TrEMBL record:
Pfam (any one): HTH_20
Protein name (record): ArsR family transcriptional regulator
UniProt cross-references to SUPFAM superfamilies, sorted A to Z: Winged helix' DNA-binding domain (SSF46785)
CDD domains associated with the record: HTH_ARSR
InterPro entries documented for this protein: ArsR-like_HTH, WH-like_DNA-bd_sf, WH_DNA-bd_sf
Annotated organism of origin: Candidatus Halobonum tyrrellensis G22
Amino acid sequence: MSGDAGGTERAAADDEEVVDLLGDDYVRTILVETREEPKSVDTLSAACGADPSTIYRRVERLREAGLLVSHQRLDPDGHHYKEYGAALRAVTVRIDPDGYEVELDRAPEEDPADRFTRLYEGFK
C-alpha cells in the first residue's frame, strides 16, 4: 500500500511490484551486476548461478517495471544480442502509519550520441 493518500491504485501497484521484485535474490543480483554497464543474459546467468531461462523471466519482469532497459549489442562477427542495464540508482522505502511508499532514483537516459559511440566502439 502506498503511504500517499492522494496516490492512485496504479502507484500502489507499482510500489508493491517494486517491493516484490526486490525480494528476489536474482533480481537484486541482476540490478547490482547491470548498474555500471549492460550485461547479457548469459553473463547474468553466470553471476546468479541460475539457468538463462530463469534470468530471462526476471529480466522481463524488471523491464516491464521500468527498472531495466535493453540495449542491442553487435559483435564483430555480425551477430547481435541484447544486453540489459539498470534503469535506477537507488530505491527508498518509507514506512509510515498509513503503509509504505517506494521512491525510485532513476538513472539518466543514455544520450543518443553516447549510445552511438558505445555501439561503434563495440565493433572495434
